[in-house]
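TICKET: design request
STATUS: open
ATTACHED STRUCTURE:
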């Protein structure tokens, strides 16, 4: 998925200097951003209060939207570098096309994982014949320096492992949780899990104290470590936790995001992640000139143009603002 914000500004993220080393309860509120013709997303990362959680560098939550009489998601071809995109749906379908020739419909509770590596382009759209509701999350994972120039590739996994407890099913999307490992390729110590809670459930989820964590609320009413978390908000939890208390006030859907704090500083602008402003300038130039990122075949429409770069120089500001 693309960052369609035409006022995109570069930011420097990562580094361990601002990682919260102890458990906290920091509620992050979203910024609303239009996505295409009929979809609006709630952007949780990067946030005014926090830019990364482990290697997770970008989190959008959208829906549930009634798109019965709408085109739904329509994201034209656009580039990525230095990151992985994670597509996760609770309702609806998304048709993925990319410059490698991949053509795949991603459905609820299936993992669509695109590793951009050195360069890729893709589009995402609701199929012409689509379900009434569209509801999901789109996330990016920053690639570490040693892997950020890998050959681009796309993975689609329909059979994902789960961790269960009374009233809880935790589907492991990426990385590992309580001994269950996703088949998706991960390049850093990380976890992403979909948590389905039934009304009245009270349980504790095992965590790694060396990871930092956040929980995104997708639907329903739940308390995370005693804090009410409403759909479209995200609770940052810090590090140092061995377990996480969860309580469902109704049937609820959450996403657990975590990982070892990302120690490298990264520069993120539009749909690019690099290590310097010069890299970002070159990537934008390559996309505008039609080189390096390939071409998406089959999308009915023009590709996106990159926003203008700001005139002010980049200023490293760490993980939080």
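STATUS: resolved
RESOLUTION: sequence designed for all positions
ATTACHED SEQUENCE:
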């Amino acid at each position: 998925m693309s960052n369609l914000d035409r006022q995109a500004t570069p930011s420097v993220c990562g580094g361990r200097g601002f990682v919260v080393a102890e458990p906290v309860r920091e509620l992050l509120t979203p910024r609303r951003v239009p996505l295409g013709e009929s979809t609006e997303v709630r952007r949780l990362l990067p946030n005014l209060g926090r830019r990364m959680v482990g290697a997770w560098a970008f989190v959008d939550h959208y829906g549930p939207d009634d798109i019965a009489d709408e085109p739904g998601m329509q994201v034209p071809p656009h580039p990525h570098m230095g990151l992985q995109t994670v597509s996760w749906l609770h309702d609806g379908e998304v048709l993925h096309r990319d410059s490698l020739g991949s053509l795949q419909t991603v459905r609820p509770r299936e993992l669509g994982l695109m590793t951009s590596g050195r360069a890729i382009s893709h589009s995402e759209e609701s199929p012409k014949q689509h379900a009434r509701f569209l509801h999901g999350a789109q996330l990016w994972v920053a690639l570490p320096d040693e892997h950020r120039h890998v050959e681009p590739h796309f993975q689609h996994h329909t059979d994902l492992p789960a961790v269960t407890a009374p009233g809880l099913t935790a589907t492991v999307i990426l990385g590992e949780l309580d001994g269950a490992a996703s088949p998706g390729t991960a390049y850093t110590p990380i976890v992403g899990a979909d948590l389905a809670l039934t009304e009245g459930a009270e349980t504790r989820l095992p965590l790694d104290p060396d990871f930092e964590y956040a929980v995104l609320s997708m639907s329903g009413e739940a308390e995370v470590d005693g804090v009410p978390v409403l759909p479209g908000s995200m609770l940052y939890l810090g590090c140092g936790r061995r377990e996480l208390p969860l309580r469902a006030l109704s049937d609820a859907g959450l996403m657990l995001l975590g990982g070892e704090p990302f120690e490298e500083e990264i520069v993120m602008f539009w749909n690019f992640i690099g290590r310097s402003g010069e890299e970002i300038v070159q990537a934008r130039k390559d996309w505008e000139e039609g080189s390096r990122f390939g071409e998406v075949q089959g999308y009915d429409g023009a590709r996106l143009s990159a926003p203008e770069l700001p005139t002010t120089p980049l200023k490293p500001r760490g993980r939080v603002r």
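CLOSING REMARK: The chain has one domain: 19-259. Helices lie at 277-289.
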